[in-house]
Amino acid sequence: MNEIKFLSTEFRRRVLVAQIPFTKKENRPVFLKYGVRGQALLVVPPIDSEDGDSNQQSNEVVFDGKLNLHRLQTFFLDHALKSEVKPQSREKEREEINKANERVKTEL
C-alpha cells in the first residue's frame, strides 16, 4: 500500500485516490456493486454534463493486477487527468464579500 500513498502524492490534483478496506462489513456493497473481489484498484472517471447525463452508467476501470510501483504508475498515467485541477482563488470570494459589505454600508 505504500506505492498507492506515493502515487497519490505524485498525481495530486489529477486523480483522487481512496483506500476502502475490504475486511469491513459496511464496505461490502461497494465491492459487490463494482464486481471487485479481494484487493483491487478502481477508477471511476467523472461524467461530463455535456457528454452524457447523470443517469448514464459509469465507465469504471478496474486494476486487479499485481500491485507494484511500475504497473500502478502506468495505470495512473493512463487514467489521470492531463492537468491539475486548481481550486478557486480566495481573492474572488473576498471580492464578492467586500461588494456585499459595500452594498450594506451604502444602504444604511
Can you tell me about this structure?
There is one protein chain. The termini are far apart. Helices cover 42% and strands 6% of the residues. The chain has helices spanning 2-10, 28-34, 69-79, 90-107, and strands at residues 41-43, 61-63. Residues 49-56 have low confidence and may be disordered. Strands 1-2 form a two-stranded antiparallel ribbon. The chain is mainly alpha-helical and 108 residues long.
**Based on helices, strands and strand pairing, what is the structural class?**
mainly alpha
Mean pLDDT: 76
Number of helices: 4
Side-by-side strand order of the widest sheet: 1-2
Q: Assess the beta-strand content as a share of residues.
A: 5-15%
List the helices and strands in order.
HHEEHH
Q: Fraction of residues in helices?
A: 40-55%
Largest sheet: 2 strands, antiparallel
What global shape is seen? elongated
Poorly predicted ranges: 49-56
Radius of gyration: 20 Å
Distance between the termini: 60 Å
Tally of DSSP β-strands = 2
